[in-house]
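Fold this sequence, please.
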Amino acid sequence: MPAPPVLLDSITQVRAEHAGRVVVTGSHGGASVAPYALAVRSTLYVFNDAGIGKEEAGVAALALLDAQGQAAVAVAHTSARIGEAQDALAGGIVSRVNRAAAALGVRAGEPLSVALARL
């Protein structure tokens, strides 16, 4: 049986012991989260899309992580509160998926809980 997801309200809380796990964060998916995620490789990182924003700033990390082979998705800000990982897990709807996450079978438009149950 796979380990349950790690829930972190902020990506800054990620630690070495989270490597290889699904990590659900409450953090936005902006470029500033990429160094934290790349320092501790996981099966999948989950962020909040933070409304996407100007030039897709709210999900910029997804492409940066994808370039390094790290799977990552964002849940819609309308489905989960920013800064609350438990809310993302409970009600988050996937809004954006990078190629590495798509290869795991995660699809935009589905509940995060459904996607994680398939992993």
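The longest strand covers residues 22-28. The helical segments are 34-39, 60-66, 85-91, 99-103, 112-118.
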